[in-house]
Each structure stands twice: as C-alpha cells, then as structure tokens.
Amino acid sequence: MAVEPSSDPEGMVFDVDTFAVHDGPGIRMAVYLKGCPLSCKWCHSPESQESAPELILIPDRCVMCGECAAACPEGAHRLTGGEHQILRSRCTACGACVEQCQQGALAVKGHRVPASLVVARAARMKPFFDRSGGGVTLTGGEPTLQVDFAEAVLRDCGARGIHTAMETSGACSWERLERLMRHVDLLIYDLKLLDDEQHRHWTGATNEQVLDNASRLCDRNVEFRLALIPGITDARQNLQAVLSFLRDIGSTRLAVLPYNPSAGAKYEWLGRPYELDHSTEGTGDLEAVLRMGRSMGVSITVV
Questions:
Q1: CA 20 → CA 15, 17, 25, 126, 134, distances in Å?
Q2: Torsion sign across C-alpha atoms 63, 64, 68, 74
Q3: pLDDT in tens, 184-214
Q4: Cα(45)–Cα(269) distance, integer angstroms
Q5: Is the pLDDT of residue 280 over 60?
Q6: Stretch(es) of the chain classified as CATH 3.30.70.20
Q7: Residue 179 near residue 147 (C-beta atoms within 8 A)
Q8: pLDDT, tens digit, for every residue of 221-249?
Q9: Which fold has domain 10-51+110-225+261-275?
C-alpha cells in the first residue's frame, strides 16, 4: 500500500539566513537544505553536501578543556598533543558534546524542521519582505532532493503572498523540478561546466541532466548563474561554451559570481581538505567577461 505524504513534511535544514541579499530580489529568508547530488570541489557550503547531520569543530575556539570528550558516548573526540581531533567514523552527531562546549567550538549542522515552522517564520517576516521586495529562497544543497518538504514550503509561502525563489543545480529529474516550478516565482539555476568530462572531474557527476533540464526552461522565470572559479569555470573555453549554450536555448541573460576563497575554513571545520589553493584569487577581469557576453548576445550581470 502506498504511503500518503505527510501534510506537514519535515526537511533536513542546516541554516537559515534572515538577511540574505544574493538569493533573489530584495532582502530574503534563505533556507539552506542538506544533501546534494554534486560534490563540487569549490563548494562554498561543504556542510550542505551530506544529507545527514554533521558535527563541525572550529579549532580556534577550542580551549582543549576536554568536556566534549567526557560527554561523548561514542568516544569520538581525541585531544592529544595540543590538537583536537574528531573521529568521524564514530561520531553520530548526537549533540552531547555541543551542549558541554562553553566556547562555541562545536555545532551540529543539520536538523529536521517541519515545513509549517519555516512558513510560520516567513509569515512573520512578510511585512519586511513587502517593504524590500524580498521573500523566501530555498537553497542548499539541492532542494529537489527533499521535494515534499520544498513543495510544502514554497506552496504555503506563495499562498500567503510571499515571493518564492529556489536555487538548484538542475541535477535532478525533470519531474521533480517541474513539480516545484509550479510554486516558484523565480528559479535560480546554477551552471558550472559544459564539457561533461570536466564536469565529472570537478563536481563528481555528469552534466547531462543539468543541460537537458536547462534547455526546457527558456520560457520560465529563470536566472542562470555561473560562479567564476579561477582556471575552471572562468576558463575562456568554458565561458564561451556556457554563453553559446544559453544563446542556443533562447536565454539572453547570465549572472556571474566572483570567486570567494573564504570557504576553505569550512572544510577544516569538517576535517576535510580544501582541494583548491587557499591563496587563489579570481582573475578580477570581469570587464573581459562582460565584453565576451556582449559579443555573444548575452547580457551578464555581477551578483
């Protein structure tokens, strides 16, 4: 027997930003969902990639008091030689250590939240949204992985007159994307690499579904975006390929995001290496990118 979906589905959320300015028009409440089918090596939110809760450790806040190790039922903390290590194969992200940390060095990223709670919080902010032209944006991670939760939030916010937006990688079935598009005022669609081999190398997955879905969106309210990762997505060959693809599917606009190297610290918090050079900066030649767009008939804006 088929199980009926919950009338108030829960989602795995790792953050809520009530003053987001890069996730759609106006001032927005950005809801960050955990879980992503891609594993981009430059990901600015590596804590979004895994679908389960994760413990983070901010080393420069740790005073090596040992309270976390004493509280952990799994023995997942090791404090030796002035270094605090988390044995992640043992950690269940139960949060017992977080409760004992007085310095705020530990936190669990990811908790289950009912859709109604998100909608209620958004409804309280509606006067602010109305004044600023803002609203609610679901981002991540990849919202289409939590389609029941995402649909409930978007639908019920829309029913209350709140502007809705969703950011997606497009790495999902068309059926899921189309289902959520019914409740979205603006879709923010992230493009990365047009060459499939390069896409697989840098994101861990093919771009076939990404490009197929994008080609179906030319008549929708969609903003295509491209993060300018030095030597990777901002390479001239890739930029030309992205602009040609957009022109071919009938889109004449692209938003670009300059590279932000600050994500490296988050990888350290998760005990993971950051595979891009911490010192790498963007090319800074945004004017050249804008000129390329104009020459190919695509209007480029910088987010």
A1: 12, 6, 10, 14, 9
A2: positive
A3: 999 999 999 999 999 999 999 999 999 999 9
A4: 11
A5: no
A6: 54-106
A7: yes
A8: 999 999 999 999 999 999 999 999 999 99
A9: TIM Barrel (3.20.20)
Residues 211, 199 contacting (CB under 8 angstroms): no
Tell me if the pTM is above 0.85: yes
Q: Tell me how far apart the alpha carbons of residues 56 and 47 are, in angstroms, rounded to a whole number.
A: 9
State residue 282's pLDDT score.
Answer: 47
Q: Copy the structure tokens of residue 232.
A: 């990777």
| Exposure letters 115-135 (e unless 16+ CB within 10 A, then b) | beebbeebbebbeebeeeebb
| CATH number of this structure's domain 54-106 | 3.30.70.20
Q: Where in the chain are all domains bearing CATH 3.20.20.70?
A: 10-51+110-225+261-275
Confirm if 228 and 283 have CB atoms less than 8 A apart.
yes
